[in-house]
Structures are given as C-alpha cells and as structure tokens.
Request: fold
Amino acid sequence: RDSRLEMGLIRGLLRIHIIEAKGLPNKDEGPVEEDVSDPVTVDVGMERVARTSVKNNSLNPRWNEVFLVEVDCKAKSVTFKVKDSDYVGSEMLGWILVDVDDLIQGEVIAGWLVLLCV
Reply:
C-alpha cells in the first residue's frame, strides 16, 4: 500500500485506457491533400501526467494505451486534452472534463465521450 495514499497526500490511483478517437477536426492546412491533423496527446489533470504516442495524419487515431496516474488530494477534476502536433507547438482539438468525485467512487467510465471543441 502506498504511504502517500495513507497520509492523504494523494486521493488514489487512476487507470486510464485511451483507445481511439473518431472524426477529429482537420487543423492542418498544407499543399498536400493527405496532410490532416496529427492528434498527439491526451493530457490528464492540471499538469501533464500522461501522454499518448503521436498518430500522424489521422482524424481517426487509435492509441490503445494504458496509464496509471496518481490523483492529487487537491484535484477536483481530470481534464483530457486532444491536441494536434506541428513542428512548432500544438493546437487544441478538443477536451473533456471529468469530476474526480465521480472517479473516486470506483465506477468505470466507459464508452464514447464527446470532445468539447475549441
């Protein structure tokens, strides 16, 4: 058992399974017709605690990646951010906010979640 959990420094561990996304917006505008958004990352929480691999030129990326992250005792929500990666910086494609209290109950949140677009 983790002593940080027993001392109240973290609320618990969260298992996150990022499977796929469909129909992401195309944010790339280039001379090549195949040049479409490159969804890169799913950020969790107020700071980056997990990052998926880059899926180049796909509006329907499939990650199938699992992360185990600590939930800080002060955390109120977990934010998942999907971004487009470019040579310089990244652009937000959309995000989802999940209340930590919903997660702490031990319920599994499964299924398709709709991204809030920017």
Observations:
- The chain has a mean pLDDT of 79.
- Residues 39 and 52 are 9 Å apart (CA to CA).
- Strands lie at 10-20, 39-43, 62-72, 77-85, 90-99.
- Residues 100-104 form the longest helix (5 residues).
